Amino acid sequence: MNSKKIVLRSAILLALFGLSACGQDTAPSAATEQVANISSESTSLVYPTTKKVAVVDDYFGTKVADPYRWLEDDMSAETADWVSAQNKTTQGYLAQIPFRDKIKTRLATLLDYEKVGMPFIEGDYNYFYKNDGLQNQYVLYRQKGDAPAEVFLNPNEFSEDGTVSLASIEFSEDGSLAVYLISEGGSDWRKARVIDTKTKEVIETELVDIKFSGLSWVGNEGFYYSSYDKPKGSELSAKTDQHKLYYHKLGTPQSEDALVFGGTEAEKHRYVGGEVTKDGNYLLVSAAVSTSGNKLFIKDLTKADSPLVTVVGNTNSDTSLVSSKGNDLLFITNMDAPNKRVVKVNAQQPTAENWVDVIPETENVLSVSTGGGFLFAKYMKDATSFIQQYELNGKKVRDIALPEVGTAGGFSGKKSQTKLYYSFSNQKTPSTTFSLDLQSGESSVHMKSKVKFNSDNFESKQVFYTSKDGTKVPMIITHKKGLVLDGTNPTILYGYGGFNISLQPQFSSTRAAWLELGGVYAVANLRGGGEYGKKWHDAGTQLKKQNVFDDFIAAAEYLIAEKVTSSDKLAVMGGSNGGLLVGAVMTQRPELFKVALPAVGVLDMLRYHTFTSGAGWAYDYGKSDDNAEMFNYLLGYSPVHNVKAGTHYPATMVTTGDHDDRVVPAHSFKFAAELQAKQAGTNPTLIRIETDAGHGAGTPISKTIDQYADIYGFTLFNMGIKDI
Asked: Of 14, 159, 208, 374, whose CB has the highest number of CB atoms within 10 Å?
């Protein structure tokens, strides 16, 4: 998460409403361990017994049973016993895969190289993140001039097992102070520590209970942050829907922090953030009720007790600050511009009727960054990058030449910088960091990846296929050169399709291991994502969500028709909203796939909004209590509610983390229980529950290696692969 952003929403940001539960506990009181012996010749399994409880909800006159509701209680001993029993069954199965250790060894080799991030300047230092190889967490270093680099923050020292991570850090404008957030066990709840950057000493009592927060300094006096009131009951699953912006003055206790925005019952906002302009003159406050669309307010910090002035008073569009100079503000917005534009306005008259285009909307989706006194327009064309440099008045300076087709990121820094850094990669090309001379426009290699992977042995191509309704959808397919298209290639089809998130081609060491194993990796850019702007996003939301599933099914059919693979060698994979995607397509077209890999998925579409900040995802999903039409639509594809007894489902390994407080693990628990109860045939239905892990961010490398060894081993084993 970029701590400078004030509109805090993503794929990953993703209450009971008058529904009644009734009935008695009529089944065994706990999960019972019944683990069968498994051999490579048989996938027959006896699963732990999962009790059923007679729970029924009434939605607009329709009764819906929810027999596994008890698994939503993440604080109960029964749920803990069930998790333990399921993990024992899963690990017993995975232990029988003869080549799992080979995959683990190769993953460790691919990840065991020095990884260095792009430098950034704060105060008198260049800072950069670095991992020597298999360190669980990246270390933050700094360097002054030609002096040797020194460790600034080492998150590996936060905990013995690497499960406490550095979530974000923000420096004061002069670089003398910093505040950083830590995450424990992958949780979205954060703690904040303030440090003197000269001494590297923590100078204040730790702030607690911070969530979905940016950090923004006001000089060296204090900073803004966001949080929810700590929920009653489980902090991992209880509903949180009243986000608040606070100001913390250094030297004062957190209990005295000033509430700046939020906290009124009359108008709740689920995502609130604040950002101060670099000169400290203005505070911009963003307020959203969902993951798309935000209100925007401005406060003059040079005047005591100045009011918040409305810039945008509704949530029909997304608008955020790009940069400022005195009273002149630059915003990026999709108001009246689905592909986004950059506008200029005077802070004293900030409303939309006064906006003037600086970079107008084009046919390609825009994001923007600043550095060295320039704007960098980062366009996306068919999910790949091209970059243009502009002066702050909107005059184009040049196109920035990229090495090949792929994804470029970076191009940001201080106004005083004469060179900036950016990264470039694609599905088969490891990331390279370049430095860009801002006057000449020339790029030079700053640092090449040291990963032990030869990209020359692989090829990646983009194709366009036709979805059910005739829509053309792009997909990038990567594999070894010389691959024979005979329908026998083990293939993973990956997708997301939601929340305006774009899947651009990027290198991954874990994906490289799959490619080296002879696998094909295909990424489909489905509707619901942001690859073609707001219209593409909206075409995969609410009552149009089936478009996303149709796009993914059509991608699978294309791969089979082109003999890249076959149904017997095809796996589908996705996480979070992508976990929903996998759950939906495997229940709609179970015969199309051999393996299904739903990760941290939103799988109970009738109740997702009752947990944590889930109600904020309603822009994409709608809610079951909105109206009868929305309820019936959600019921029609909700994976938990569409598992049918007697159906031959793909070999399935559901994955989740026991500390996931964004998409609570109960989604995965209930889906796995339904599949285990109703699966026909011998395809295994397993759930792998990572302990001390959350939605994904901050996961230690050691856990990542184990997880992907299990995923790839399970996938190949169930495709009939005997050895690798």
From this structure: 14
